[in-house]
Design goal:
The chain has 524 residues and is of the alpha+beta class. The protein has helices spanning 3-25, 37-52, 60-83, 90-107, 114-137, 144-168, 170-174, 177-232, 251-257, 261-264, 276-287, 333-353, 364-381, 395-402, 404-421, 446-462, 493-509; strands at residues 236-241, 246-249, 292-299, 305-316, 322-331, 385-392, 428-433, 436-442, 478-485, 515-519. The protein is built from 17 helices and ten strands. α2 packs antiparallel against α3 and α3 packs antiparallel against α4.
Length: 524
């Protein structure tokens, strides 16, 4: 077999082997992938193919062929190193590549056979060094490491002998007797290529099996550790699958909800979520890959509510597809119920602070607050605001004649009349003080306010509460003053109250048991 044929076979074999490695590299989970190995085979294939066309001459194409071939040998040496978990520094990578380019380019200007000797010498270095490295890393006398080391050493020494002949015995290298010997070198390289490629692949498989075994052991330890953590954790833990069914629940959450762990397996969130819309919302967020922390009330097995603080996390695969979710639930039932009780107490206190204890309608404090708010709202709405001031006629005389208990009962009935005569909850009826009452009527014009006031007056008179000491009527009556206004920079709240008070006293002056009204700015 001549040298050209061997170089062609080496080229084809390297291309096929490189293509095989490229196909393996498309598998992202391929544990047999070795750095530099694919590049080494492709470079060796290119170098061998170029030398197929340049076995008798040495020119620029031959230089390029030797650069590719030697770079492939260097890359294969580095691949062996990375196979054992070592790294190749970037500095060594750059230095070696530059050295190969420089030496091969210089060899073009060196006479034969010395330039061939230099190329052989470099090749011997790139095969002997990984062979020595493999022998040092080997832990047994018979192993794949030793077999591969032997292949590299044999190839390296073959090239070393060739280099020695070229450099030390140039006359012999140029003679016909040396041609048979130099023909042996590519044949040996081809045989070693077959054996070393297979052995290196077996070593990669062996390494992947070891890594897989270590990963399984690590995973098993992690699962045991995780199991211990979740079982001893104070919080409840639930894991859902992609269909949002429970695949794991620890003892704490099962006890809190009144189930056993086995009973919870396969349950869906709506089985214990009181708010189904919240369950759907959270499920939608998890499926989008979004995490959240929220408070929710869950339903126990015996249909009782129980509050939890939920920290939920979405579980996605490497492609970002939803695989399930993980939830940690902290029991906040006592705290939450205390918060709700406190909030209800505060609400009641606030409500009581805004109500008149005698009549049950709003008090003066609430009246002042609402009037201020409604008047400021006029600036934005450009609407109208009406105010009714009411005073029970001759109420002092009523108290003197019938007593304070009867007087209090009379005020309660009048308060109820005001409450039933206004448009709740838009309008407000309040006890202004003593026997005085007031109504705030937002978005109400003068005519409508007068009609409401007249309705109140008539209903109070229709109560038929006896009043012997009244000079107005034999029954309890009331006088009312009405004022209507729009927002103006010139008007203040006090001006509105003053105008309503003037209308009230005008009603009293004109004989009581009547309604007097005006629009602010037209008070007489």
């Amino acid at each position: 077999m001549d040298v050209r044929t061997v170089m062609l076979i080496l080229s084809v074999g390297s291309f096929i082997f490189g293509l095989f490695l490229i196909i393996l590299n498309f598998n992202k989970n391929n544990p047999q992938r070795i750095s530099f190995w694919t590049s080494a085979k492709i470079l060796q294939a290119i170098g061998s193919l170029l030398l197929y066309f340049r076995t008798t001459t040495f020119d620029e194409l031959t230089v390029l062929a030797n650069i590719a071939l030697l770079s492939g040998c260097a890359y294969e040496a580095w691949a062996v190193r990375t196979l054992f978990g070592y790294t190749v520094r970037r500095r060594l990578h750059i230095f070696t590549s530059l050295a190969i380019i420089l030496i091969c380019s210089t060899a073009m200007y060196i006479v034969s056979p010395y330039r061939g000797g230099i190329i052989f010498l470099l090749q011997s270095v790139f095969y002997i060094l990984p062979g020595i490295f493999l022998l040092r890393e080997s832990k047994s006398k018979i192993s794949l490491h030793n077999l591969l080391a032997g292949c590299y050493c044999i190839t390296g020494f073959a090239f070393l002998i060739g280099a020695t002949i070229c450099l030390v015995f140039p006359e012999f290298a140029l003679s016909r007797d040396s041609r048979a010997f130099f023909a042996i070198i590519p044949v040996v390289s081809f045989c070693i290529f077959l054996v070393s490629g297979f052995v290196l692949l077996m070593l990669a498989k062996e390494r992947s099996d070891i890594l897989a075994l270590e990963a399984q052991e690590s995973l098993k330890k992690s699962e045991i550790r995780f199991q211990q953590i979740v079982e001893t954790a104070n919080e409840g833990i639930i894991i859902f699958d992609e269909h949002y069914r429970i695949t794991f629940a620890n003892e704490n959450i099962a006890l809190a909800l009144g189930y056993t762990v086995d009973e919870m397996m396969g349950m869906a969130p709506h089985s214990f979520f009181i708010d189904p819309e919240l369950a759907k919302q959270q499920e939608s967020l998890r499926k989008k890959g979004e995490d959240s922390i929220y408070e929710c009330c869950l339903l126990t097995k015996d249909k009782k509510s129980h509050w939890f603080l939920v920290s939920a996390k979405s579980i996605l695969d490497d492609s970002g597809n939803f695989e399930g979710s993980f939830a940690m639930l902290t029991d906040i039932d006592e705290r939450k119920k205390m918060e709700l009780l406190l909030a209800e107490s505060n609400r009641c206190l606030k409500e009581l602070s805004m109500k008149d204890s005698l009549t049950g309608i709003a008090n003066r404090r609430c009246f002042d607050s609402v009037l201020k708010h409604e008047y400021s709202r006029l600036r934005r709405s450009n609407s109208m605001l009406s105010l009714i001031m009411l005073d029970v006629d001759k109420f002092k005389e009523y108290n003197d004649r019938y007593g304070h208990v009867a007087g209090d009962n009379c005020l309660r009935q009048i308060g109820k009349v005001l409450e039933n005569s206004i448009n709740q909850p838009v309008d407000l009826a309040a006890r202004y003080g003593g026997e005085e009452f007031a109504c705030i009527l937002p978005d109400t014009d003068s005519q409508s306010a007068m009609e409401t006031a007249e309705k109140i007056r008539q209903r109070i008179e229709n109560l038929r509460i006896e009043h012997e000491k009244s000079s107005v009527s034999e029954y309890v009556t009331a006088s009312l003053g009405v004022v209507t206004t729009q927002y103006s920079e010139e008007n203040r709240l006090q001006d509105i109250l003053t105008a309503a008070d003037k209308m009230l006293y005008k009603a009293k002056a004109y004989g009581r048991n009547r309604v007097e009204s005006c629009e602010l700015g037209t008070v007489e």
